[in-house]
Write a structure and sequence with these properties.
This protein is an alpha+beta fold. It has 2 domains: 227 residues, Jelly Rolls (Sandwich); 70 residues, Roll (SH3 type barrels), CATH 2.30.30. The chain contains 10 helices and 23 strands. The protein has a 17-stranded mixed beta sheet that branches. Strands 21-20-19-18-22-23 form a 6-stranded antiparallel beta sheet, covered by helices on one side. The radius of gyration is 24 Å and the shape is globular. The N and C termini lie far apart (83 Å). It holds the Pfam family FecR. InterPro entries: FecR. It comes from Leptospira johnsonii.
Amino acid sequence: MNRKLFLLFLIVTFIGSSNFCSKVSKSKPGLVVIFLTGKVDVQRNGKLIPLSLGSVLQKDDTIKTNSGTLDLQTSLGHVIRLKSYTNLSIDSLHGEGSEETSLAVKTGLLLVKTNKLSQKEQFKISTPTAIAGVRGTAFSFEVVQGTLPKIKVYEGMVAMTLKAPVSQEIPADKIAENPNYQKFQKLLEENEIVISEEEEAEVKPEFDQLAQTILNRLDDASIAQSIEKFRNDLVRTVQKGKFERDPRESADLETLVKVNEDLVSGSLDNKYLAKEIEKDQSEKLNIAFDKLESEASAQKLASEEEIQKYYSVLESVHKLDKTVLHGAVVAQVGNTMLVHSTKGIYRLDVSEVEYIQYKNFDVITKKKK
């Protein structure tokens, strides 16, 4: 009897597991807009389409945030924040048989929080010179100087592989057929750079210069023997080391919240759920701000010197009612701003703020009337 029950348990478990795997692999592809500020457009089939809450981004879309920001969520619960002046294209999306999500960043800054990935699932972010493979983590990905990425890992791990950029002088199809190019690309792939928690890595401009030198000499008979000698030079073009997380980076990560996954699934099924998404995201964002407020209060920072030392910045927030708060802006998401000042901790709406004064310059957030 016990044997029969055990076999029945195994069968039920197997069926449940199969159904779960089937559900995951057949999930609809798409990235759903769960929060945005400013005017953000997507370029699709040669047309510019304005984005709004609940909009679904598709494969081959290109997003330019300009002065706005954008939070996206996948059907598997991964969330991505595109900061201002980010230019990103969607190369592939998980769902309907595909196990890969691949995003190509031309310029800008991303903040990413992923759930634990399944064994088959792949989540990649690329630039013309590198590919970052995510292994269940929270990290930022910034493209500086045009094509060179900088990665900071807050939780988990990211594996970065350099790739040969497009030659500035030789057609791409001619390069791809060259056996020396294939040898060079293999060398890059073999030198995977693993970036662990609390580590950052940055590809220096020397990599692009070195890669172009190799690409422009691919037809040289002696280059085949020289490519292997470039290994140490290539390693030196990536600067990696530990970093101390800034409290405001932690706050930024805390405010990257995800909404109920049923709302994302519904949006992918073409249901209009903007109001529900806004309500759910707002509630969870308020919880995040409550936590940040509590953590800031626990620091017991009373003076400007203590605040500046802790946040590495000192600001004066000038309100429309002529009140001035001396301290630091801990976090700002949309119209909500959390300020840690010598007078206490305040959650403000940007409509209450006339301008913010920094040590060396002013940033006007609202013009005087």
